[in-house]
Amino acid sequence: AQGRGRTVARMGVEVRTIVDDEIEAFTAARNNGFMRPADEGAAAKLAGDWQLVKLGEDRIPADAKITLSVTPEGKVSGATGVNRFFGGLAKEKMLFGPLGMTRAAGPPEPMKREAAYVKALGEVTSLAIEKDQLTLSADDKPRLVFERVKQGAPK
Fold first, then answer.
1. Does the global pTM surpass 0.85?
2. At CB < 8 A and 24+ separation, what contacts does 8-16 make?
3. Average confidence (pLDDT) per 10 residues, the chain, 155 residues
4. What are residue 107's phi and psi, to 5 degrees?
5. Which phi and psi angles does 31 have, rounded to 5°?
């Protein structure tokens, strides 16, 4: 049984109605260390701002504005083209820990891309960085390919 729901608002805009059980589960996961980097070097390797250029086999137009940002401490945030997300790097197995997310609606195609992007983020287990390109993979298959955002360039 789920607990009572409550509305979470940021800057006066309703983001999502969530239930207390979800908050407790997220807090427990964070407190158990699942928000920390998988290893000491993972956050340092990923640190910076990244623009998604390929999702599976599909090229992503730059104006879709699908991003990933990672701090040297392992905090993660980004944009799906419609919504924003936040969380951290995982300690075990998956690359990312639980992610919180706004829940605005958008046009069908961006929402479809968002669903695929978020699903892929939850499945990736490895990364490779070559020059300014980041590839996130699951089951040895590239799932997400990003390009580093140059400092001073619009996100």
1. no
2. 10/102, 15/102, 15/103, 15/104, 16/101, 16/102, 16/103
3. 44 43 44 40 85 96 93 92 92 79 94 95 90 92 94 62
4. -60, 155
5. -70, -25
